[in-house]
């Protein structure tokens, strides 16, 4: 006695096979199609499986792949039952089947089937399966050829589509997947077919998919790109289209929009950076004009102070007032210097400068301004010379270290690194204002509390401050000095 599974959507064939095999004492289990067969094979291991090729849902060819992918069925014999043997060349070896019998006159077909079953006891049926058995007993049919041609035509179209296409039963089981769907889902076809569609998604998204799969009276249902689903790192849209009322299946169209969303996000980022660069340029132009006018007025004030000192007799009261006026004038003069540094109007004395040596020397001067609880580390790799103004660069380092120091509330670390960097075309395109070429990179990092998005976007604006009114030129001057040295600056 042999255990036999017969898979066919034709009820007559199932009854016929059950009758002729049961009479010989064999145990016969039948399945009306590929999907029920998959479920049966999870708990039942037959000796021989007879598989019809043309079936709804999971076809015979896909079922053969599924069977051969299951380790527990590696020794099972697969015999194909073909109703299209006269119209199509059956690739028995490619399907990893052991034999193929053409469906024809029942008496002759029964003889071929019983012979195969009897031979199984004496041979494993492996090796060269040979030609399809029983082809001389049948005739080629033109209408079958046309239907097969149409089927192959649609399979080619589905395979070439840019969207993923699945066929899903009313119970949510996947019974077809084109090549794009397989590439998106990243599961082999033999593992995917028969699985539940909803199980492909994370738990958070399953309720959305379940709602989409509910009957809609034949109307397509969609998940659009406004709120896409995530699947294996892809962002996808879904469209459910009922296609077969009789078989209660739906077509699911998967559209991978990951690259387009990334491109749109990158475009928005570049637009924001360009807007920020244009805004800073406009502010710099305004600041430069104000600084020059302010400087001219300040020179008149300071000159008249000196004239008054010459005309008025010396006394303690006069000197006190003039001293206060002079101190205020000097503070305003330093402010105009910072404005001009920001606005590309400052005075520069560039010379050859190595940033690593410069940082060490400047830290010796600035160390006493930092909190005793704040530790400073330096890390330098190969550093080339640059043309830079030493005093202006000291202003840069001083302002950034002051910000870092204030951001660290208790104990903390400021890390300063410097090294050569090559900026390529792609990186430059992603950062408006940055040109490709060799640079020396100075990076200052602290483990303080950080800043919010608004602060990060406005940190280089003149007089913008998170502290109190009257401060805020330091980082604006930093921005201007770096730009005036043909450099580039950013903040995270």
Overview of the molecule:
By secondary structure, the chain is α/β, with parallel strands linked by helices. 45% of the residues lie in helices and 20% in strands. It has 15 helices and 16 strands. The strands form four sheets. Strands 6, 7, 8, 9, 10 and 11 form a six-stranded antiparallel sheet that branches. A five-stranded parallel sheet has the order 2-1-3-4-5, with helices on both faces. Strands 13-15-16 form a three-stranded mixed sheet. Strand 6 and strand 7 form a beta hairpin. Helix 2 packs parallel to helix 3, helix 9 packs antiparallel against helix 10 and helix 11 crosses helix 12. The two termini are 75 Å apart. The model has no long low-confidence stretch (mean pLDDT 82).
Summary keywords:
rod-shaped, five-stranded parallel sheet, 15 helices, 16 strands, alpha/beta, 492 residues, six-stranded antiparallel sheet
Brief write-up:
This protein has 15 helices and 16 strands.
Strand content: 15-25%
**Rounded radius of gyration (Å):** 40 Å
Helix residue percentage: 40-55%
Q: The biggest beta sheet, please?
A: 6 strands, antiparallel
Strand segment tally = 16
Look at the structure and give the mean pLDDT.
Answer: 82
Q: Count up the helices.
A: 15
Based on secondary structure, the structural category is alpha/beta
Cα end-to-end separation: 75 Å
**Poorly predicted residue ranges:** none
Morphology: rod-shaped
């Amino acid at each position: 006695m042999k255990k036999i599974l017969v898979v066919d959507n034709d009820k007559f064939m199932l009854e016929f096979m059950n009758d002729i095999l049961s009479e010989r004492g064999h145990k016969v289990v039948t399945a009306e199609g590929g999907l029920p067969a998959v479920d049966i094979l999870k708990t039942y291991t037959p000796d021989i499986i007879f598989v019809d090729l043309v079936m709804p849902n999971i076809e015979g060819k896909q079922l053969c792949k599924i069977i051969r992918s299951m380790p527990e069925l590696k020794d099972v014999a697969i015999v194909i039952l073909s109703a299209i043997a006269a119209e199509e060349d059956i690739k028995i070896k490619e399907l990893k089947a052991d034999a193929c019998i053409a469906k024809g006159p029942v008496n002759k077909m029964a003889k071929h089937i019983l012979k195969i079953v009897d031979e199984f006891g004496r041979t494993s049926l492996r090796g060269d399966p040979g030609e399809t058995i029983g082809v001389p007993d049948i005739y080629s049919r033109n209408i079958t050829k046309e239907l097969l041609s149409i089927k192959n035509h649609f399979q080619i179209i589905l395979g070439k589509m840019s969207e993923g296409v699945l066929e899903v039963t009313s119970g949510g089981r996947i019974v077809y997947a084109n090549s794009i769907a397989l590439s998106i889902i990243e599961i082999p076809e033999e593992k995917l077919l028969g699985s539940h569609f909803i199980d492909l998604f994370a738990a958070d998204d399953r309720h959305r998919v379940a709602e989409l799969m509910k009957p809609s009276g034949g109307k397509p249902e969609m998940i659009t790109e406004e709120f896409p689903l995530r699947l294996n790192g892809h962002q996808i849209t879904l469209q459910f289209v009922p296609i077969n009322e009789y078989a209660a299946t739906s077509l699911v169209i998967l559209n991978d929009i990951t690259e387009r969303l990334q491109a749109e996000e990158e475009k928005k980022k570049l637009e924001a950076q360009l807007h920020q660069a244009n805004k800073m340029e406009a502010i710099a132009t305004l600041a430069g004009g104000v600084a020059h006018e302010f400087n001219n007025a300040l020179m008149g004030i300071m000159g008249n102070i000196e004239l008054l000192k010459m005309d008025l007799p010396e006394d303690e009261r006069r000197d006190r007032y003039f001293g206060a006026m002079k101190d205020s004038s000097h503070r305003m003069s330093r402010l105009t210097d910072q404005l001009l540094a920001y606005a590309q109007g400052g005075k520069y004395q560039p010379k050859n400068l190595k940033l690593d040596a410069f940082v060490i020397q400047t830290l010796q001067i600035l160390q006493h301004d930092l909190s005793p609880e704040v530790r400073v580390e330096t890390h330098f790799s190969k550093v080339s010379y640059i043309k830079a103004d030493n005093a202006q660069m000291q202003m840069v380092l001083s302002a950034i270290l002051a910000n870092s120091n204030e951001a660290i509330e208790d104990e903390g670390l400021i890390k300063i690194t410097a090294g050569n960097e090559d900026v390529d075309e792609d990186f430059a395109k992603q950062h408006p204002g940055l040109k490709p070429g060799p640079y020396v990179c100075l990076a200052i990092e602290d483990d303080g509390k950080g800043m919010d998005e608004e602060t990060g976007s406005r940190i280089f604006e003149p007089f913008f401050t998170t502290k109190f009114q009257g401060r805020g030129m330091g980082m604006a001057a930093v921005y201007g000095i770096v730009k005036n040295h043909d450099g580039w600056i950013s903040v995270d």
